């Protein structure tokens, strides 16, 4: 079972990186094992694949050290929950999976969307956040 999940995470990480035009994969099982501050949420369509189910997307979050600048130019260092990677397979988009996945993560992490940081958001991610959360 662990090997199947690892395989799914690795394939989805590769697909996410391709979709974002990245040179290297940012989400893999190996990288998750190296950082215990990162968590991954997987979304499964339970009726796909003749009732066996199929993973349709994932969302990776983790604590990140951020440097924020205030209006006076002062720098403040904070730890913040950050969206590190977010992907729904192209053929599964526009079915509400991304929104369900994002909302479940917000619930599980007990955080408001306005309090999240997003690491290097893609244009598609920015449109998603604007459409669903007016950010």
UniProtKB/TrEMBL annotation:
N-acetyltransferase domain ranges (all copies): 1-135
Domain of life: Eukaryota
Keyword Ligase tagged: no
GO molecular function, one term: tubulin N-acetyltransferase activity
Keywords: Acyltransferase, Transferase
EC number per UniProt: 2.3.1.108
SUPFAM superfamilies assigned to the protein according to its UniProt record, in alphabetical order: Acyl-CoA N-acyltransferases (Nat)
Cellular component, GO annotation: microtubule
A Pfam entry, by short name: Acetyltransf_16
Coiled coil: none
PROSITE patterns: GNAT_ATAT
Stated name of the protein: Alpha-tubulin N-acetyltransferase 1-like
């Amino acid at each position: 079972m662990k090997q199947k999940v690892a395989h799914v995470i690795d394939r989805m990480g590769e697909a996410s990186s391709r979709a974002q035009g990245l040179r290297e994969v940012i989400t893999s099982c190996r990288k998750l094992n190296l950082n215990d501050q990162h968590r991954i949420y997987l979304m499964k369509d339970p009726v796909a694949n003749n009732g066996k189910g199929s993973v349709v997307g994932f969302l990776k979050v983790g604590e990140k050290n951020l440097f924020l600048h205030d209006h006076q130019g002062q720098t403040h260092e904070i730890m913040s929950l950050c969206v590190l990677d977010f992907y729904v397979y192209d053929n599964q988009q526009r079915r509400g999976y991304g929104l369900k996945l994002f909302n479940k993560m917000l619930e599980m992490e007990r955080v408001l969307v306005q309090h999240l940081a997003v690491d290097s958001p893609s244009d598609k991610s920015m449109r998603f956040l604007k459409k669903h959360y007016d950010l």
